[in-house]
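Retry 2 of 3 after timeout on previous attempt. Resubmitting structure tokens to design endpoint.
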């Protein structure tokens, strides 16, 4: 199953493909633009789309964007967008990890559907699965 199929199975109201209709679809589904966008793709081209999908004074959280990106900051400023850079999360692990465990025990956080394990010797397959989207969170194991 694709990541979008999994998102729908886990309760997402919509799981949109990153095609040319993405921004228009988000704006339609959210009655004019999203209040919040979390971009986990790490793809520089998604930054423009994320800002375009936000409503005025929306918030954008960027995770995993590496390297330099050229972007017209006036687009953020004229829309009043709040930009949050997220590195390694900002939660308190002493509180957050027990919450995740409790959610998992109640069947609300299906780790087994999010994690795909690969033997270390299959690192190439793990990278390929990450890139093609067939693995949400590839994890290498060592025997």
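Retry 2 succeeded. Sequence:
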């Amino acid at each position: 199953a694709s990541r979008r199929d999994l998102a729908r199975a886990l309760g997402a109201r919509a799981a949109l493909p990153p095609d040319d209709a993405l921004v228009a679809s988000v704006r339609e589904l959210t009655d004019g633009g999203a209040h919040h966008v979390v971009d986990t793709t790490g793809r520089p081209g998604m930054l423009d789309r994320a800002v375009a999908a936000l409503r005025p004074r929306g918030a954008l959280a960027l995770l995993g964007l590496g390297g330099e990106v050229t972007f017209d900051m006036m687009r953020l400023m004229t829309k009043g967008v709040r930009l949050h850079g997220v590195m390694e999360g900002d939660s308190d692990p002493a509180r957050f990890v027990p919450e995740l465990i409790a959610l998992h025990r109640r069947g609300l956080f299906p780790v087994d559907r999010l994690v795909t394990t690969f033997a270390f010797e299959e690192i190439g397959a793990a990278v390929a699965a990450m890139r093609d989207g067939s693995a949400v969170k590839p994890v290498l194991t060592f025997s």
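Attempt log closed. The first strand starts at residue 34 and ends at 39.
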